[in-house]
Amino acid sequence: MLKVENLSAGYGAIRVLWGISFDIADGEVVAILGGNGAGKSTMVRTVCGQIKALAGSSVVFNGENLTGCSTRKILEAGIVQIPEGRQLFVGMTVYENLELGAFNKETKKHLNDNLEMVYEWFPKLRERSAQLAGTLSGGEQQMVAVARGIIGMPKLLILDEPSLGLAPNIVDQILRVVKNLARSQGISVMLVEQDVHKALKTSDRGYVIENGNVVLLDTSQNLLNNDLVKKAYLGF
């Protein structure tokens, strides 16, 4: 579904990504792992068109070359990002935030069915539908952000640091929904995460990024058992 080759990008004269390559298949959950400053978020922003890729980079999605395309074009192609920090409209209700996930005619047509689906996965959102998003707990806000992304009917869902600042039980609930989404709906998922153990327990495969380069790639189970991963990320 997604094939990224030689992805290079940065901010002005500062180069962050140095020719990263990776792929994600239909219905697959792929973890992108690494510490602070590894280049994970820059990679997400470049794939989503928020940062311009440098010459020689290639981002192909379902056979369509999206390198250098606008964020709107990339969204219309079916790539939906749930950004780090949630970025909700805090002065709007939960329902109004969710409604914004339906961004075109197709997603608007299925809004009610998709709302019911996310309410079943996150029952608290049904209870809080008329409440202002800014009054929710951090975990509830992350549920809104994930649900809003699902309402956009993605073919590829990108989650950028979904566990940041959240209680472990909330993270577990969100990751269960994400895994179920891939298994039941065939949606591909890119899980960009610092919590290596949770990410690998959720995903099928993983890539480890350091200093803007891919240094390890394998099945999630093999990475969990990898001595370098255990030492560097799992504290074993």
Descriptive report:
This protein is α/β, with parallel strands linked by helices and 236 residues long. The chain has two domains: 1-78 and 154-236, 3-Layer(aba) Sandwich (Rossmann fold); 85-152, no CATH class. The protein has eleven helices and ten strands. The strands form two sheets. The protein has a six-stranded mixed beta sheet, sandwiched between helices. A four-stranded antiparallel beta sheet has the order 2-1-4-5, with helices on one face. The radius of gyration is 17 Å and the shape is globular.
Quick description:
With 236 residues, this protein is an alpha/beta fold.
Q: Strands, helices and their partners?
A:
Elements: E1 2-11, E2 14-24, E3 29-33, H1 40-47, E4 58-61, E5 64-65, H2 71-77, E6 79-82, H3 94-99, H4 105-109, H5 111-121, H6 123-127, H7 138-151, E7 156-160, H8 168-185, E8 188-193, H9 196-202, E9 205-210, E10 213-219, H10 220-224, H11 227-234
Parallel strand pairs: 3-8, 3-9, 6-7, 7-8
Antiparallel strand pairs: 1-2, 1-4, 4-5, 9-10
Question: What labels would you give this structure?
Answer:
236 residues, alpha/beta, Rossmann fold, 2 domains, 6-stranded mixed sheet, 4-stranded antiparallel sheet, 11 helices, 25% strand, globular
Global Rg: 17 Å
Number of separate strands: 10
Q: Tell me roughly what share of residues is in helical segments.
A: 25-40%
> Which spans have pLDDT < 50 for at least 5 consecutive residues?
none
Strand content: 25-35%
In whole angstroms, how far apart are the ends?
35 Å
State the oligomer. single chain
Count of spatially separate domains: 2
* Global mean pLDDT: 94
**What is the second-level CATH architecture of the largest domain?**
3-Layer(aba) Sandwich
Silhouette: globular
Structural class: alpha/beta
Strand arrangement, major sheet? 6-7-8-3-9-10
**Main beta-sheet strand count, sense and barrel state:** 6 strands, mixed
The CATH topology annotation of the largest domain reads as Rossmann fold
The CATH superfamily of the largest domain is: P-loop containing nucleotide triphosphate hydrolases
Order of helices and strands: EEEHEEHEHHHHHEHEHEEHH
The DSSP helix count reads: 11
Overall CATH class of the largest domain: Alpha Beta
